[in-house]
From TrEMBL:
Gene3D superfamilies tied to this protein: Rhodanese-like domain (3.40.250.10)
Pfam families: Rhodanese
Domain Rhodanese stretches: 8-96
InterPro entries assigned to the protein according to its UniProt record, in alphabetical order: Rhodanese-like_dom (IPR001763), Rhodanese-like_dom_sf (IPR036873)
Protein name in the entry: Rhodanese domain-containing protein
Domain of life: Eukaryota
């Protein structure tokens, strides 16, 4: 799914799979934008019959999550190609998650990944590689615990933030 396709037909449910820290920079605005944690708390069955567009910074993490939703739950889930960076390249707005106000700030991984659209300010974090790997391994660990628990409940999910709008 491309950014422009989210503007066609009924709006899809947008699922932001980035970390809470990344989400605090900006999110794609809209009444149907949820964090991954909010989505998982409601449960995949709550979204049966909806189009679901998952996004992250560049598309890798969201692609994995969309694939999981299709394979495990049979949902109509897509990866937003290029994710939030493609969204900015298309000139679409971003929102500050604290108050929903428009912002031109967008999280990028590094100067080498600063592919934001014209007029957007890249925000990079100085993260040591160990915590980044810990986040990735932690997600796999939580998935394993959920599998052991029969796919329901299990370990708490991620460190996602609040919904950006009502």
């Amino acid at each position: 799914m491309h950014a422009a396709e989210t503007k066609e037909g009924p709006p899809p449910v947008l699922v932001d799979v980035r970390t809470h820290t990344e989400q605090q920079v900006s999110m794609i605005p809209g009444p149907y934008t949820l964090t991954q944690r909010e989505f998982e708390e409601r449960g995949p069955e709550a979204f049966r019959g909806y189009r679901i567009a998952c996004y992250c910074t560049a598309g890798y993490r969201s692609g994995l999550f969309a694939d999981k939703l299709r394979r495990r739950h049979g949902l109509d889930a897509y990866n937003l190609r290029g994710s939030i960076l493609a969204w900015t390249q298309a000139g679409y707005p971003l929102a500050d998650p604290r108050d929903g106000a428009p912002t031109n700030r967008v999280h990028v991984f590094s100067k080498d990944w600063a592919f934001q659209g014209k007029g957007y300010e890249p925000v990079m974090f100085q993260r040591p590689k160990i915590p980044f790997l810990t986040d990735a391994v932690g997600g796999l660990w939580q998935s394993g615990l959920r599998l052991l628990a029969g796919g329901k409940g299990g370990a708490p999910t991620g460190t996602q933030g609040q919904k950006t709008s009502s």
